[in-house]
Amino acid sequence: MEILKSFGIQPTLLLAQIVNFLIILYLLKRFFYKPIVKILEDRKKRIEESLQNAKTIEEKLQMTEEETKKIIEQARANTQSLIDDAKNEARRITDEATSEGRKLIEAAKLEAKSQIEAQRIQMQRQLEKQTLNLVITVVRKILGKSIKNTQRQQLTAEAVSEISRKVQ
Amino acid sequence: MAEVHVALAAEKLFQLGPLPITNSFLTTWVVTLILIGFAFLATKKIEAVPKGLQNIAEFSIEAFQELVSSIAGDKTKVFMPIVATFFFFIIIGNYLGILPGIGSVGFFLPADASHQAMQAGELHGGEKVFVPIFRSINSDLNTTLALALISLFATHYLSIKYLGLDGYLAKFFSLNPIFLFVGLMEIVGEFTKILSLSFRLYGNIFAGEVLLTTASTKVFAYIVPIPFYFLEILVGFVQALIFAMLTLVFMVILTQKASH
């Protein structure tokens, strides 16, 4: 025990040191490690949650993007079919209009033709009538004095009948 | 001439009831105040976003948690506070001992008043010896022995707690003569742990004190001691870590089920 004495070992001091350290240990454990460890664990949990959330959000975003792409694709297809339909419709309408126009023109042409024909006939008749009157007048004038009444009547009747036959 | 030298034992400053207050014990109180003060300030206002002292506290505790859990696994929650407290207590004590003023500020007392420091034949009655007010806590065997005892008792307590009394006894006693012999060796080993833990820490820190005192008083007080201070910073950290890690390893070994 001589060696312990020379190192200054004293039971009271030793005990005091032990008690002192145990007090430190208790205080640190209760008021230092516990709250710090707790907040470290809380933070870890929160970070894990956040990461999980971020992952979910990314997945959702990807899904949305895919959906958007699908929708755009669909819209494009729809538009294409609409355009095609419209083109077809337009072509059909043009065709219809063209054929109708052609028909109309044809009909108008026919009508015009018949009208012209009728006019021509009318004019011809008028012309014949006028020519006849002219001839009658000229004949009257030439023959009026020289021909006897009876002769004249006969001639006139003959002429009239002939002309009227011709005219008809 | 009264020369400044480092006594093997801590010097007594005054008596407090039955308790002799030595300079190293006084320093222990300072260390205690620093530790508790730091813990109080660091956890006074705990926030989710750490700043200031809380950052330091979180960093050190997290480092210890990782270190302990890499060895102790699911017993981390129980082991970590003990191991970390050993580390913090020892390293604060060691670094406090390096500070200027510790071990060099003091007064001269008559040799008989500080009889603990007196080594036979070295001092004569009436001669005055230098007594520093503060002394590095781990250069007092009382402190390191106390730490070693706590370490050992905590280890055995945890062993009983985890294995039960029969599991604990089975580690040391066996009907198989070979294992019985090994068990007896282990009992001797347990006592050796006290000596090795306490004297390793005491020896290193005391030697450092002597080295620094010698370098700065007997050799040359300027520039020359600086490398030794760096050395002491390293030693202070390493010794604290060694004590904590050995305690941890002892705990892990003793709380594992006997393989035989």
TrEMBL record, chain A:
Q: How does it sit in the membrane?
A: Single-pass membrane protein
Keyword Nuclease: yes or no? no
An annotated GO cellular component: proton-transporting ATP synthase complex
**Which Gene3D superfamilies has this protein been placed in?**
6.10.250.1580
Looking up SUPFAM superfamilies in the UniProt record yields: F1F0 ATP synthase subunit B, membrane domain (SSF81573)
Question: What positions belong to coiled-coil segments?
Answer: 37-133
* Pfam families, A to Z: ATP-synt_B (PF00430)
What keywords appear on the UniProt entry?
ATP synthesis, Cell membrane, CF(0), Coiled coil, Hydrogen ion transport, Ion transport, Membrane, Transmembrane, Transmembrane helix, Transport
MF-aspect GO terms? proton-transporting ATP synthase activity, rotational mechanism; proton-transporting ATPase activity, rotational mechanism
**What highest taxon heads this organism's lineage?**
Bacteria
Q: What is the annotated localization of this protein?
A: Cell membrane; Endomembrane system
Q: Which InterPro entries match?
A: ATP_synth_B-like_membr_sf (IPR028987), ATP_synth_b/b'su_bac/chlpt (IPR002146), ATP_synth_F0_bsu_bac (IPR005864), ATP_synthase_B_chain (IPR050059)
Q: Where is the chain membrane-spanning? A: 6-28
Similarity annotation: Belongs to the ATPase B chain family.
What is the purpose of this protein?
F(1)F(0) ATP synthase produces ATP from ADP in the presence of a proton or sodium gradient. F-type ATPases consist of two structural domains, F(1) containing the extramembraneous catalytic core and F(0) containing the membrane proton channel, linked together by a central stalk and a peripheral stalk. During catalysis, ATP synthesis in the catalytic domain of F(1) is coupled via a rotary mechanism of the central stalk subunits to proton translocation. Component of the F(0) channel, it forms part of the peripheral stalk, linking F(1) to F(0).
Subunit composition?
Answer: F-type ATPases have 2 components, F(1) - the catalytic core - and F(0) - the membrane proton channel. F(1) has five subunits: alpha(3), beta(3), gamma(1), delta(1), epsilon(1). F(0) has three main subunits: a(1), b(2) and c(10-14). The alpha and beta chains form an alternating ring which encloses part of the gamma chain. F(1) is attached to F(0) by a central stalk formed by the gamma and epsilon chains, while a peripheral stalk is formed by the delta and b chains.
Write down what this protein is called: ATP synthase subunit b
Encoding gene, per UniProt annotation: atpF
UniProtKB/TrEMBL annotation, chain B:
One cellular component term (GO) for this entry is: plasma membrane
Q: Give the SUPFAM superfamilies listed for this entry.
A: F1F0 ATP synthase subunit A
The protein's location, in the record's own words, is: Cell membrane; Membrane
Q: Which Pfam families match?
A: ATP-synt_A (PF00119)
**Could you tell me the membrane topology recorded for this protein?**
Multi-pass membrane protein
GO BP terms in the entry: proton motive force-driven plasma membrane ATP synthesis
Which keywords does UniProt give here? Answer: ATP synthesis, Cell membrane, CF(0), Hydrogen ion transport, Ion transport, Membrane, Transmembrane, Transmembrane helix, Transport
InterPro entries attached here?
ATP_syn_F0_a_bact/chloroplast, ATP_synth_F0_asu, ATP_synth_F0_asu_AS, F0_ATP_A_sf
Signal peptide from the UniProt entry: none
Reading the lineage from the top rank, the first entry is Bacteria
| Segments traversing the membrane | 21-42, 78-98, 168-189, 201-223, 229-254
- Which GO terms label this protein's molecular function in UniProt? proton-transporting ATP synthase activity, rotational mechanism
* Family that this chain belongs to: Belongs to the ATPase A chain family.
Job description of the protein: Key component of the proton channel; it plays a direct role in the translocation of protons across the membrane.
PANTHER family from the xrefs? Answer: ATP SYNTHASE SUBUNIT A, CHLOROPLASTIC (PTHR42823:SF3)
Q: Per its UniProt record, what HAMAP family does this chain match?
A: ATP_synth_a_bact
Q: What is this protein called?
A: ATP synthase subunit a
| Species whose genome carries this gene | Candidatus Curtissbacteria bacterium RIFCSPHIGHO2_12_FULL_38_9b
Which lineage ranks, top first, belong to the organism behind this chain? Bacteria, Candidatus Curtissiibacteriota
Q: Which gene is this protein's source?
A: atpB
